[in-house]
Design brief:
Blueprint lengths: L2 H31 L5 E5 L3 E8 L12 H25 L5 H24 L2 E9 L2 E2 L5 H29 L1
Antiparallel strand pairs: 1-2, 2-3, 3-4
Helix pairs in contact: 1-3, 2-3, 3-4
């Protein structure tokens, strides 16, 4: 195995470990220190902590599904997709590091939420943002990882697309 490949594997593992660790540590703190539906204002009413257990996915989507379907759709299917994406970024040798890091954030966040769903039956959500015209649902660090990784992947893809078009035009 060459040095570049070893570095890629190491980079992916570090990104995954950091993302899953931040997610699980923050959820563990919230589970032990914040009561169910307790509301703690961190930055006036713009950023609050409110512990909820979400049996669904993003914004509670799917929480009314029967349990066997919910397990397949919210645990098994995402796990299979993440394994395939992980294999893809390990095998594809020409991916930029920013793209790899973005995918690592997405997979790391996914692992954090899937772990909760499989081990606890729900995902602990606890952060809420309210900036007058912009308001979020209640989310967690894994959700931030997934969104942040998605943004990084999109930006990296856009920049690489532009570079490729510029090279073709020359």
């Amino acid at each position: 195995m060459n040095t570049r490949r070893i570095f890629r594997v190491f980079l992916i593992l570090i990104v995954l470990i950091i993302n899953v660790s931040c997610d699980q540590i923050s959820k563990n703190i919230v589970r032990h220190r914040i009561g169910e539906n307790e509301r703690i204002s961190v930055i006036q009413n713009y950023f609050t902590l409110t512990k909820t257990e979400n049996t669904g996915a993003f914004l509670s989507a799917g929480n009314t599904m029967p349990q066997p379907y919910r397990f397949i759709v919210l645990t098994i299917l995402p796990l299979v997709v993440m394994v395939l994406v992980f294999i893809y970024i390990l095998r594809k040798k020409t991916l930029p590091y920013a793209f790899i890091i973005g995918i690592g954030f997405i997979v790391g966040g996914g692992i954090g939420n899937i772990y909760d769903r499989a081990m606890r039956g729900s995902v602990t959500d606890f952060m809420h943002i309210n900036f007058c015209f912009f308001q979020t649902g209640i989310f967690n660090m894994a959700d931030l990882s997934i969104v942040g990784g998605g943004i990084l992947v999109l930006i990296t893809s856009y920049i690489n697309d532009r570079r490729l078009k510029q090279q073709i035009e020359k």
